[in-house]
Structures are given as C-alpha cells and as structure tokens.
Amino acid sequence: ETPANQLVIATSLAQVLSLDPHQATEAKANEIMANLYDRLVSTDGSGKISPQLAEKWEIDDKGITFHLRKAEFASGNPVTSADVVYSITRLLKLDQAAAANLKRVGYNGGNVEKLVTAPDEKTVRIDLSGEVTSELLLYRLAMVIASVVDSKELKSHVVNDDWGNAWLRTNSAGSGPFTLNKWTPNEIVILDASKNYVAGPPKMRRVIVRHVPESQVERLMLERGDIDIASALTATDLATFTGKQGYEIQRVPTGGFYVLSMNASKEPLSNPKVREAIAYGIDYKGMEKAIMGPYGRARTVPVPENFEFAIPSPDWKLDVAKAKALLAEAGYKDGFTVNLKTIAQTPRIDLATAIQASLGQIGVKVNIMQGNGADIIAAHRARDFDLLIPQTGAYMPNVLGAMEQFSSNPDNSLKANNAGNFVWRSGWDIPELTAITAKAALEPDAKKRGALYVQMQEMFVAQKPAVLPLFERYEPIVLTSRVQGYVGHPSQTTRLEGVTKTDK
Amino acid sequence: MIKVENLDVVYGSKDKSNHVVRGVSFAVSRGEALGIVGESGCGKSTVLRSLAGLEGGWTGSISFDGKRVGKVRTRDELKLAQMVFQDPYGSLHPRHRIGTALAEPIRSMGAGDGWARVAEALQQVGLPVHFASRFPHELSGGQRQRVAIARALILSPPILLLDEPTSALDVSIQAEVLNLLADQREERNLTFILVSHDLSVISHMCDRVLVMQNGVFVDELTKADLQAGVTHASYSHELFDASFL
Amino acid sequence: MPDLDETPVLSVRGLNVRFGRNSIPAVSNVSFDVGRERIGIVGESGSGKSTTGRAIMRLLPQRAGVTAERMDFLGSPLLEKTERQMGRLRGKDIALIMQDPRYSLNPVLTIGKQVAEAAKLHLGVGGKAAVAHARDMLARVRINDPDRVLSLYPHQISGGMGQRVMIAMMLLARPKLVIADEPTSALDVSVRKDVLTLLDELVRENNSGLILISHDIRMVAAFCERILVMYSGRVVETLSKLEDAAHPYTRGLIAAMPDPKHPVRRLKVLDRKSIEVEINP
Amino acid sequence: MSNIVQDDAIIQPPAIGTRIWNSTSRILRKLADEPLGMVGFIILAILVVVAIFAPWIAPYDPAAQTLGDALQPPSLAHLAGTDEFGRDIFSRLVYGTRITIQTVLSVSVIVGPIGLVIGVVAGFFGGRTDAILMRATDIVLSFPSLILALAFAAALGAGLGTAIVAISLTAWPPIARLARAEALVVRNADYVAAARLYGASPMRILFLYIAPMCIPSVIVRLTLNMAGIILTAASLGFLGLGAQPPLPEWGAMISSGRKFMLDYWWVAVMPGVAILLTSLAFNIAGDTLRDLLDPRHARS
Amino acid sequence: MKELSLAELGRRLLHLIVSLFILLCVTFVIGRVMPTDPVGAIVGELADPKAYEAMRVRLGLDLPLYQQFFVYVWGLLHGDMGTAILTGNAVTKDLSQAFPATLELATLAVLISTLIGVPLGLAAGLFRDSAIDKFARVFALVGHSIPVFWFGIVGLVIFYAGLNLVGGPGRVDVFYEGLIEPTTGLMLVDSLLEGETDIFWNALSHIILPACILAYMAMAYITRMTRAFTLEQLNQDYVIAARAKGVGPVRTVISHVLPNIAVQLITVLAISYGNLLEGAVVTEIVFSWPGIGQYMTNALMIGDMNAILAATIIVGFIFMLLNFIADIAYALLDPRTREAAR
Ligand SMILES: Nc1ncnc2c1ncn2[C@@H]1O[C@H](COP(=O)(O)OP(=O)(O)OP(=O)(O)O)[C@@H](O)[C@H]1O
Ligand SMILES: Nc1ncnc2c1ncn2[C@@H]1O[C@H](COP(=O)(O)OP(=O)(O)OP(=O)(O)O)[C@@H](O)[C@H]1O
Ligand SMILES: [Mg+2]
Ligand SMILES: [Mg+2]
C-alpha cells in the first residue's frame, strides 16, 4: 500500500526528454512541469482563462498589462516582473520547439525585448505583435511553455550562453506547488512539496511518477495498490476497472487526434481522389470499438465535436465499392502499394494493422514499417513516407487551437524545409486554407471568427486532407478511490496541489 | 642417397627455446635401411619430419640423391621421399574412402584422377580391391597401416621414411607389416630410414642403427653388433639390456 | 602382516562379459586361480585381457553384463557384494595398476594428496598421519626425495616416476591381489625393467598375488610363474614355460616377434584360419 | 588376410546418393535408441510439413480481420481463439511456421558457411591470419548481441530481412570458434601431414581435408543455435523490430498478445507454446545429434 | 593450453586493448551512420530548421566523421564519455547508476544458477541416463527454450499478481524510491549499509523474481556444460584409478572430477555472467529494471550516440575483461600451466 502522504502515478515516460519548460513540449513532460512552474494565467477544465501568477490583467487594443500577485519561488526569491520578462525572452531566444507556439503569431527573439516589458516590479506589459488577438495570446500564455522561471537562480547555472538549459533540463526553478527532486529518464520522476508555495505546501509530501511501459504490469500494480493513478493503460486493461469497487476512471479529452498523414508530395497520394478513396477505405467504427475503446472517438474533422463551431464529420466510412470506384476514377483500378510508418506503440501500431487490412480490401497494399520514435519522427520531418500515423494535441480549447496545425502551411516548397510544420511534412499545398487560418487568428470579433472557423473546416474536408484525422484523442486514467481531488486537465496540465489521499 | 649435415632443430622462441636436434650428420646409401632408436622425446621423429619437409625450423643441409633440398619442397622433391606415420588411426582421413585416400596423392600432384592406380596399389600391399570403397574405421589397424604404406608408395618414391610404423600394432600384425615393408624394399630397391624405440624391430629390419639421446647420436651399431650384443656407449648398452629382458 | 595361508586369493570359474544387449561376448568362459604367485595374461589387442582385470575389480560400466559361475576373492563371492562393500575392498585388498601414469593420475591434484587419499581411505588415519604414510610409501618405491615429490603435480614427474607413484598408491594398503594392466607399455624401454622389478619385489614382500596383463609374451614369461594366453575372449592355453607352448596361436605369437639374436628374413605370420579351426572344431 | 583377392571390378567412387542414404540410415538407426531425440525430430518434421502445407492446413486467412470477432476464446471454430483483430490464432500459428523456418534456415545458411570458413582458415593457417580473424571474432562476440541486432534493425529499418541479417551478424563467432578449435586439432593430424607430403595445395587441404571434419560439429552447433535464433527473432519481434504486421511472426504475436495476457490468456500463450515447443525441439534435436555425431559426447 | 608467463600476460593485455579500440571504432561508425535522429529527439517535433541546425552544431554532428571520432577518443582519454542526450547527464554518471543495477541482478542470477546448475550437472553426469539425468536435461532444455519476456510476464502474473509472493517491477516499491543514498549502487548492499532492513527486504522481494528467471536461463547452459564436462572426465583413466583405489562414486565426482572441470567451469561461468550483464535487456524492460540494458535500449531508440557508445564499450569491456580473467584463472588454477606464471 502506498503511504497516505505520497501520490504514486504510473505512466509511460518514454517521450520525456527534458524538463525545461522552454524546451520540452511533450505531454507527459507538460504534466510534470505544470506542477513545478506557474504561468501568468492558466485555463480551467472548461477552457476559461483564469489567474495564476497574474492576479488580474487589463486588455487594450495594443496589448495586455498583467499585475502580479505576491509569490515566492521555491528558492525563496520573490516572483517579480523581471522574472516574467526573462522567462519569455528565454523561451524565444532559446528557440527550441517550445518557442514555435509564440513564433507562429509573430513573437521572436528579435522583437521580444521590445514587446515584453516590465514597467515596475509587479507589472508586466505584453504588446501585441500584430499577428494575434489578445484573447488568443492569453491562451498561448496559459501554456506550459510560458512558465515563469526563477531568473536569479537560473542565471547562476548558465554555461556557454545556454540560458541555463543544461541545468534546467534536470532541475526545477519555479514557483509551483512542487519541486523536482529527481528525474531519471525512462524510470522515475520524484517531486517534493514546495515549502514556499503561495497557497502553502500541498498535502502530498511527495509525488512519484513511475515509468511502467507495460500496461498489464501497470494494471497489476494498480490492483495490488502499489500505485494510486495509472495512465497509459490499454483499452482492454482499462475496461477491467469499469465499475470496479475502489477505482475511478477519468476520461480526459486532449483536443488532439490520431491522424493518418499521407505524403501528398508524391504520386499517387498527391491525387485528391486517391486520398478520398483512402478516407472511404477505413473502418472507423470497427476500429473505434475494437482498438480505440476509451482512447478515441471516430472523428474526421480536426476539431473535437463538442467545441463551439465544430462541424459534423463528413460521410467518410468503410465503403469498399465507393473507394474502388474513386480509385478507378483516379486511374488506379488495380490499386497500388504504399508503405505505412508508425511508432511501435499501442494503439498506433494496432491502428496501422487495421488500416492495412481494410485498405487491402480496396486494393491498396500497405507495408507496415514500425520504428522507434526518433526514426519515425525523422522520416516524417524528411517527408520520407507514404503513410504515417502521428498524433496531435490542442493547446487551446477552440477551433483554432485544435485545427491550426492541420490548416496552415505558408510555404510548401521542399526548399522551405519547414519540418516543424505538420502540414508541410505531408507536402499538402493549401494556400487558401492557410490564408483563412491566419485571418481567423486575427479576427477580434467572436461571431465573424466563428464563421471563419466553420469555413476552415468545410474547406479542409473539401480538399480531401492529406492529414486525415481518424480519432479524437482521449487520455483515460484510472485512480484508486483513495485519491481525492484529482481533476484531469484537458491540455494535460493537471495540477496536483489539491490532491489528497485517504488512509486505505 | 640421403646426406644430412649438421642438422639442428630448435623449437620455441628465444626465452624458452628447446634445442631438440643438435647438429646431427649421417648418410644413407641407396637401398640401405638405417634405423634410429632412442628414448621418447629424444628427437627421432623430428629428424624424420625435417627430412620429409614437414618441419620448417631446421638449419644445416639435407640432400637427396646428391641434390640439396630446401625447407619448402617442390613437387619433384616431394616425390623423392614419402613417410609412414606411427598411428594408423590418425594417418588416414576418417571421411575419405580408402580409394580416395590412395588416389589423392596422384590428384594432388596433378597427375590425373588416380583411380586407375588404386586397385594395383591395394593388391601390392595385399589388400582386396573392394576395400577401396570402405572407410578407414571399417579397417583394422594393420590394414590401415598397409593402406598408409600403399599411399606412400603410390608416387614411387625412392626413399621411405618410417616413424614407428608398427608400434601401435599387435605383435602378430606387426609381423605382417614388417614383412610387407621388407618385400616392398626388395621389390623397389627402396632406401629406408626406420625410427623405433623397439630395438628388436630395428635390428630385424635395418642394416645399421644409430642410437640417439638428447638430440645427438651417441652410438652406431651394425647388424653384426646387434647379433653379438656389442655396444659402444653406456646408453646404448642400457637400452639393449632393457629391450631383451 | 604377511598372510601365509595357502588358499587361492582369487578363484574364477566361467567368467563371461558382454557389452551391450546382443553383442558377442568380450570375455567368455574364463577360469583360473591365483594364489600367492604371479600369473600373466597375454593376448593380442582386444582379446579381453583388460576386461577380465576390470571385471574382477567390478569396474566395468553398468551396461556390461558380468556373469560367472564363481568369482571368489579369499573365499567370498565378489559378484554378490554391494557397491559399498566393493568400495571398501578396492585399493585395500585388490589393487589395479593401469597402463599410463600420465592419464591415470589426477592431473590437478598433487601426488601427496592422491597417495594420502589412499592412506586415509584404507588405513583409517587422517591428515598428517596420512601424509606421513604417503611419504614412507614413496620412499619404499625408491623415490629419492619423497618430500619434494609429495608437493608435485603429475605432469611434473617423469613416466617412470609416475608409475612408481601409482604403485605406491595402490600397494600402500598391502592388498592381497594386485592386477597390473600393462604397467610398463607406456614407459620408456630403459625404465621398464626398474618398474617391473620394483613391482615384483613389493608383491613378494606382501606375499600377495599378482596378475600381470601384457601383450609382450616374452616379458610375461620372464616374470610370471604361469601364463594365460587369451584369444578373442577365451583362454586358449595356460603355460608355465614358453617352450611348452602347444597352441598354434601361442606359437604364432612367439614366432611373430623379431629376435635380433636369431635373425630371420621373413617373420612368421599368424594363420588365423587354422586357429579358428583349432578353437571351434 | 594377406591373400590377395583377384578382383577386377572397376573401382569407382560410390554415388553421392548412396553415401548420403547410408549415413542417414545409420543415424536413423541410432536415433531409434533415443526416444527423446526422436520426439524432437518428429516435432521438427511436423513443423516442416505444416510450413509446406500451411494454406491447406490453416482454416482461415492469417491476415483476415473480423473486428467483430475479436478476442474469442479457443473453440471449435477457432482452435486457438482469435486475437484483438479477430484473426484466427491457429491459422496465424500455422503460417508462422513458415516465417520461423525461413528465419532459422536463412540465418543458418548465412552463418554456417561464414563461421566455418573463418574458423577453418584461422585454425589452419594459424599465425597472423589466426590472430586477426580471432580478434575480429572476439570483438563481435563481445558485442552485446541483442543490442547490435537492435542497432542494425534501427539502421536498416525494421523487418524480417533485417532481423535475419542482424542475427546472422552476431551468430557466426561461436561457429567460427568451434570450427577453429576443430581445425586446430585436425591440422596436426597425420593425414594432413601426409597430404602435405604428397603435395596437396593448402586450399585442397583446407577444403577437402579439414573442412569436412569440422562440418558435423558445425551442423550440431547450428541446430542448437536454431533455438537461440528463434528466441532472438522473437525478442526482436517483441521489441517491434522483427517481422512487420500483419506477418504472423510468433514473437510479434506474443508481443501484441501480452497486452491481453490477464484477460485473454490464449492470445499470448498460444504463440508462446509454439515457440517453446519449436525451440525445445531444436534443442533436443541438436543435443541428440551431438550425442550421435560428436565422438566426445558419444556413449563410450 | 598456453602457458602463462609475464610476456604472455602482456600480450593478452595488449590484445585486450586493441580489441577495445576496434570495438570503439566499429560502434562509433555504426552509431554515426545509423539514420536515427538525435537532434530531432532533442529539439522536439515542432522545432524549426534553424534551431535544429544549431543543435546539430552544438552536438558536433556537423564535423566530418573522422573529426567526430577524434573528438570522442580525446574525451574518452580524459575520462569524458560525453553527455547523454536523454538525461543531460555525463554518460559516465548515468552508467554509474545503471550499471550497478544490472550488476546486482546479474550477480544474484549467476550465483543462483551456479549453486543449482553445477550440482545438478554433476549429478546428471554421474548418474547418466538415470531419472535425475533426464530431469536435468529436460529442465535445462526448457530453460533454453522459453522466450524470456514471456516467462517474465507469466512470472509476474503468477508470483506478483496471483500469489503476492514477490515485489513488482522496479528495484523497490515506488515509495521507497529515492530514500537510499547510492553508495555502491547495489540496492541490497546500500540498504544494509544504512541499516534500513525494511528496504533491504523490499529490494530482495523485487530482485528475486527477475534474478530467478535470468538464473534459469543461465542455468540451462551451466547444467549442460557441467554434465558434458563431467561425462568427459568420467571416461578418463584417472577416474577409474580413483575408483580402483576405493574412492566412492560421489566422492570421486566431488574430489576428483570437480577440481578437474573447475577451470573449464570458470570459463562457462564467465561467459554466462557476461551474457547476463549484456543480455538482460528484455528482462529489464519487462521488470522496469533501471539497468544498463534498458538504458541502452532507450538510448538506441532516440539515437543517443554518446550513451550507446559508452554503454557498448563498457559492456564489451566487461565481457572481454571477464574472458581475460577467466583465461588467467584457467592458467592459474590448472597446475599444468601454473608454474610458468611464477
Ligand atoms: N611442434 C613442436 N613444438 C615444440 N616442441 C616440440 C614440437 N614437436 C616436438 N617437440 C619437442 O621436441 C622433442 C623431440 O620430439 P620428437 O617427437 O622428435 O621425439 P621422439 O624421439 O620422436 O619421441 P617419441 O618416441 O615419443 O615419438 C620433444 O621434447 C618434444 O617435446
Ligand atoms: N566399454 C566397452 N564397451 C563395449 N565394448 C568394450 C568395452 N570395453 C572393451 N570392449 C570390447 O571388449 C573386447 C575386449 O577388450 P579389452 O579392453 O579387454 O582388450 P585387451 O585385451 O585389454 O586389449 P588391449 O591390448 O588393446 O588393451 C574388445 O573387443 C573391446 O572392443
Ligand atoms: Mg616420435
Ligand atoms: Mg587392455
């Protein structure tokens, strides 16, 4: 049995490569860092912006002024506006993957000093870049990438102008409820309660996140009471806890998708007819039932169904006759052969196998090539694939947050080498869609924006996407009923400060 | 026929050298049978292997038929001297049929496939021709030694080097092999060097005996000496004594 | 303590040994008595000499079927003894000296350990006393420097010395019967005689029986009072002098050996057909 | 014995067929005394038959998915149950024998000759050649073999072919060492000395005299290795780097089946049993062959 | 069997070093030409090409291969094996944590397998074809035939979930994690050093299952080899001589056969130990054991070359070292080669 003052979480830490909030973007890392650092603002479960380090803020048409509340870092240093400015500057100057979210809307290492300023010790002013509305900017500032770090502490760890990155990857310097005690990659993360947390030290003295890659093992540990919370269980293992005494299942939506990327820069997938045929060659319902279970819901528009302005999924379903007809129209009566690359991880490898089988029925022969994360990502970045199954997440709970990465590709040329762009990787050239997306991001009027959102989605479907969403992604977790006050957050920034445990 | 001068063989490298044969010289005339006796490890086999060309590390000079031969032998030089080994079980390839074993020397010399000569060779050593299709393990020790002799003779060498050809055999079979060797020698006017630790075998076969101890020859005995039991060195006396107890 | 009793030490009647289920017997119907004397067993290779010796020691593998009308050692039947009883007998009352000391001494144990083990097993003494016995025994087999030899390993001593160690180890408990299976054929000619004389001397001193197994009929004749000649598992003849040999096999064996004192041009060769006829008329 | 038989029959080397027949029947006769070994060989024979006639034996298409029938327990309709895609596990096992045999044979065909040649050359020529070849062997041997296979699979892209190459890469050194040890003994044999004396060239000695002596133990070793190959291939399959879906490779089947172990035991247990039985059969067969062919292990 | 002199010892040491160097070269080349993308792994999926390129330069991957190699060797000579991408730590530091975990597991496994395998092999050899021989044979063969990952999972299901006899995955229960200061890195030793008997028993309950499973795998080989060696020795004349001297069969095996096969057994044990150290990959994954096998696999997955190189070199070095030690032990234990060493 786990002690009452420690929270033990089992999950897969395989993708966690850094715990520097200005570097890492991976979901699991976010979940941890969200508890080490505070941001200016955060989102609540329903998607509303709520205060965190900034107790209030004023919006004008030039920008936003934040007023900080009194808080201390774990080191005991007070949180000042200088720390906030330093943090955003650091994010953009460090220029890692995490910076992409601000860079996309016009903030970069060059203009950050001009746009982000500290009028006084407790006030931060952020000017709009001109490519974003202040509302959308707030959502971006609620992301973990905008975490505020202890600049005094960090400056003492700088080597070779690295902004303290080497140190911060494996240490913490935040004002969150916990501090990082130990991180051993692919093994364990141990968080300690922070004495200096603004709301007083949390109830849990320690939070232990344990890497357990085998779902069945994780399930055994949960049944034995060796862990309190299990995530990354397979659908079948999850199913055994439904309605089981002493356990609770939370199905947290992520706003992200499991996607079938098709390489539109190559024959035959460059042909929209072929892509449509493929869209008709997949057994969404069967896969949802047999493979995805609580992990996903069939959805072929890259916006979760419950979002405002979401349109219903188009009529894509397994229809062999129609798919064959489309293929014949496209000039591939006898089908063709493609490779399908995927990470060797559940459920994606299972998706691949099922897609292979159903596409086989319409005459498309699929060779599966599974690989480790680095291989597959590298192939994706290099457009070196025919089909590939990536997954996405949403950074804010609206159409743009979910869809932007599916609908924006400013320069599709090979030369642009925009490997950070999801659409570019598929070689899908969508200038109009890109333009509308950019327009929607700048539209201050909610109504008009909503219309643009609908237009974006319809255009996406009409163009027979080369980045075909298959399933809306959920993160189901199981908790023992000893755990109280755990509320899974949709953008995986669950805070653990309010979690308590009962004795047995 | 054979002339050996100052033959030296050293095994091992500088720090741990083992001087096995120390400057021995002797000569054998055509048709003569020379015996070498001595205790185990005194260097008898080494002398023989150097003569045959199986040993690379000797110094001195060796000539056959008046021609000096080197360490690496040409095919013609190899044809001059063939050897019969002590262990009849080890001297035939276990996976070669007798026919193959006998044909191999001819094939190796590049003189045809050799099958034509197999029957004749077998008959010469008194073995039935159908033995050609047998494997060595289907033969007795004596029969194997006959095959080994046939193999050595198939290239018609004038010199035969015999390293304890009968010491692994029973007395009764030893007699057969010794008779066979004597017959062949007479028939082909062969020159023999016979190594053995059994004085009685040596004295039966040889015209002259060299007694070896620690890599040098300490005594030389003629057939008459042997019959009369005459020795010239204390070591050969001891040996002689022990052999006929 | 020399035993002056005159009953035969070993009495064998109708000994048969078979290897495998339905193979021909390796030893068939062999009978002989051994008193306080030296008897020799000769014959060509594979004639069953060693098998006879090991059958007496009951050291043949379990698959070997050993049967005998009688095989009594000092009056008690050997074949009826349990393995444990045999263990007590071996080395204490019956000893076996094998052909090649290079293989029959344990290469990784010192001479001292191996000889002392025999003392421990049969004299009921332990530790130091056993070593002392071993040293005495080595001195008895005329090893000059027994203290040094005790701490040597088998590969560090010569073949002749090794065979003496073997004799010391086996005769330490003064066995009543010694079986020597070709004790000299692996040794150099020059030391053969020494070893044989030593063995002879010790056996006489203990007043034990000796079975000397060899293929060298002349050597056996020089040492033994009686000679059993074996041919394909059977005893074809028992002699006390070579000159008495009547059986064609025995005569053939003698004639096949070259004798420098009486040179011949061709050696006589065994005529196996006529021997077979003689044995199975 | 010394009477000369007048036999004018023309002497010919016996036909290769008779030779093979003779030695096989000899081995078969010996096998009859080894019931356990017999069982091993029978299992292997069955395996080969199943692999050849897989399409006739398997009741279903091994890749055909019926998502509605997923995870059915063993029954008359599905002898070994169905997997998470509703595929018939029995049919997949039957087709899997083909992959297993293909893997095992390919690796053996690559590794056997390479190991044999390297070992024999090193053993026969000795000196510098030996030192260099054995150094190479030692180095490959000291490579963590599964890791090398992993690296290789990562480099060439996962797949059955890669797995075969990767396993071969690390499987030859033990064979080479064995062949070398054997060659070292054989090269000192008198018949090799005799061959040198009658002028046989080194190549002739190497391939006609030494290599044939090393082949039996190499074959025995290969047979014993086959079990290891199956297990390594399965491990690679387990790590997702072996045969790719939907190929019914047993290791991959366990790997995906282990996700259902607790509730649907048959999905992982069936291929596990198949692997166990097969590698056990190879082990037993190898063990028995060794007893039969290798004099050092033969019953005295 | 070669004799062991000082010169020979030196020669072998030289061989060891040369082998290591070649191992280094080969691993380096394999690692660098492998198309995994460590840069991508660090900068993340969404980074733009400039950041990507900058990281490439920072890692020194823009240099020509031979220069990268020199840089690496230079560092190595100064005890610097580079920084692991995965952890951001010096590789040497990571290894100093991962290696003891594997060492602990492998050592326990080799102990268990020796204590059971050797006596079983001796008995099987002595009583050839008896029930015990047949049992040992089948037992060992099965051990050689089970896929270890399968065995591991089944073991967990039975002993952990079902019978609740052993601890689960990991080295200790999660909430004991991080309480013990790694002095030696061996959890069993460290917990005793700190007097934490609770943690000791907990660690033992965790290690016992994976250790037993590995031990069973290794035991198969050890038993078979012991049996084969024993049989070989039992045919030797000295065994018959010992029996003729009156030594009973069991004592013959223990005091005559065992010392003779000890030297060969050491080689077998060294090989087994080496294989366990390097071959525990799959077991470590199944049991979430934070050892070197898992470290390497993870490193491999993201193309973390420094980590792979260092781990391969360490494992290769250990393997070679074990062989080297076995060789020397061989020479020292066997009296036939010993005196030359003095
Ligand atoms: N290849 C070799 N390397 C090193 N030493 C060797 C080699 N061959 C033989 N010797 C040594 O040379 C010495 C003489 O050996 P040789 O074989 O000539 O003796 P031998 O007189 O034929 O003895 P035996 O009667 O036992 O055959 C022995 O001390 C032996 O150990
Ligand atoms: N363990 C065994 N298994 C099967 N057959 C055996 C075994 N030991 C001996 N034989 C056979 O028994 C017969 C007699 O063998 P034995 O060893 O007694 O002969 P020997 O007279 O001592 O011969 P040598 O002079 O060669 O030592 C031979 O045919 C031999 O093949
Ligand atoms: Mg010799
Ligand atoms: Mg004998």
Automatic annotation (TrEMBL), chain B:
Record membrane topology: Peripheral membrane protein
Major location category of this protein: membrane
Cell location: Cell inner membrane; Membrane
Name of the featured protein: Glutathione import ATP-binding protein GsiA
CDD domains the UniProt entry points to: ABC_NikE_OppD_transporters
UniProt source species: Neorhizobium galegae bv. orientalis str. HAMBI 540
Enzyme class: translocase
Swiss-Prot/TrEMBL GO biological process terms: transmembrane transport
Family the entry assigns: Belongs to the ABC transporter superfamily. Glutathione importer (TC 3.A.1.5.11) family.
EC identifiers of the protein: 7.4.2.10
SUBUNIT field: The complex is composed of two ATP-binding proteins (GsiA), two transmembrane proteins (GsiC and GsiD) and a solute-binding protein (GsiB).
UniProtKB/TrEMBL annotation, chain C:
Subcellular location(s) of the protein: Cell inner membrane
InterPro entries according to UniProt: AAA+_ATPase (IPR003593), ABC_Ni/Peptide_Import (IPR050388), ABC_transporter-like_ATP-bd (IPR003439), P-loop_NTPase (IPR027417)
Classification via Pfam families: ABC_tran
GO terms, molecular function: ATP binding; ATP hydrolysis activity
Gene Ontology CC: plasma membrane
Membrane-related topology note: Peripheral membrane protein
Gene3D superfamilies documented for this protein: P-loop containing nucleotide triphosphate hydrolases
Keywords recorded for this protein, A-Z: ATP-binding, Cell membrane, Membrane, Nucleotide-binding, Plasmid, Transport
Domain ABC transporter: 12-257
Family classification: Belongs to the ABC transporter superfamily.
PANTHER family: DIPEPTIDE TRANSPORT ATP-BINDING PROTEIN DPPD, OLIGOPEPTIDE TRANSPORT ATP-BINDING PROTEIN APPD
Name of protein: Dipeptide ABC transporter, ATP-binding protein
UniProtKB/TrEMBL annotation, chain D:
UniProt entry tagged with the keyword Protein transport: yes
Main location: membrane
Domain of life per record: Bacteria
PROSITE patterns (UniProt xref): ABC_TM1
Pfam family, one: OppC_N
UniProt GO cellular component terms: plasma membrane
Gene3D superfamilies given in the database record: MetI-like
Record GO terms (molecular function): dipeptide transmembrane transporter activity
InterPro entries: BP-dependent_transpt_permease (IPR050366), MetI-like (IPR000515), MetI-like_sf (IPR035906), OppC_N (IPR025966)
Keywords: Cell membrane, Membrane, Peptide transport, Plasmid, Protein transport, Transmembrane, Transmembrane helix, Transport
Topology with respect to the bilayer: Multi-pass membrane protein
GO biological process, one term: protein transport
Encoding gene per record: dppC
Subcellular location: Cell membrane
Name of the protein in question: Dipeptide transport system permease protein DppC
Family to which this protein belongs: Belongs to the binding-protein-dependent transport system permease family.
From TrEMBL, chain E:
Membrane topology value: Multi-pass membrane protein
Gene Ontology molecular function, alphabetical: dipeptide transmembrane transporter activity
Pfam families noted in UniProt: BPD_transp_1, BPD_transp_1_N
Domain of life: Bacteria
Keyword entries, A-Z: Cell membrane, Membrane, Plasmid, Transmembrane, Transmembrane helix, Transport
ABC transmembrane type-1 domain: residues covered: 99-326
Gene Ontology CC annotations of this record: plasma membrane
SUPFAM superfamilies (alphabetical): MetI-like
Transmembrane segments: 12-30, 105-127, 139-163, 199-222, 261-287, 307-333
Localization per record: Cell membrane
Family per similarity comment: Belongs to the binding-protein-dependent transport system permease family.
Protein name: Dipeptide/oligopeptide/nickel ABC transporter inner membrane protein
Organism: Neorhizobium galegae bv. orientalis str. HAMBI 540
